[in-house]
Amino acid sequence: MDERIRANRELLKSSFPLLRQLKSDQDRHVPQPRLEKPVPPGARLVDLPAPDAAALAERDIHNCLKRRRSRRTFNAASLTLDQLAFLLWATQGVQRVFGDNYSTFRPAPSGGARHPFETYLIVNRVDHLAPGVYRYLPLSHRLQFVFADEALVAGLHEAVMGQTFVGDSAVVFAWSCIPYRTEWRYHVAAAKLVLLDAGHLCQNLYLACEAIGCGTCAVAAYDQALIDRLLRLDGVDEFVVYLAPVGRVGRQ
Known about the structure:
By secondary structure, the chain is of the alpha+beta class. The protein has eight helices and nine strands. A seven-stranded antiparallel β-sheet has the order 1-6-5-4-7-9-8, sandwiched between helices. It has a two-stranded antiparallel ribbon with strand order 2-3.
């Protein structure tokens, strides 16, 4: 067996018994990392509508589960800001903060409530939002405008290795991870937890998209260096782990 495949299989296995021999930074009483990256001074912020069931086209969870598919064909319609706000809340919205910003409850589960993700949006067609890259601020349910670039879609197509349907969407969800948020508590067991958590939030996106009449397709095939560079991430302490284009489906 190729040693690289063997190493990947070991990553999939539980490493929690090792924690009996190791001390995490939480055990060492190192202050925990922030729940959310700080917002740069003077950044442009966008208030989002409160998540509202009025955005739903389908309220039957059975139907949402039955219809869930990976959808790669989107029409040219825009998402409304209400729809986008609902999708952001359904994946990473904060329902409750515990202690002195110690942890949060959110619609998507996370090991130890560490929630190691930042949500970046590559916006093409969303009402009342100029095209560009935004970051979701779950603690305040707002968007931070990050940057705009005319070459953004071309760079995205290159980063996802020619999967042009990604850039054809109304908005691309790009989830980065800040692994230390989970490593702080779980040390070597963090890697597996982060990847499990990514699956949790993406499934929430699938079901939420079905509920509002939109579609998505999870994308794990991308060039790591290119996508990190595109979103201006350092690729070490923060890097992309999952992508999901979202758009309106069916006839306009």
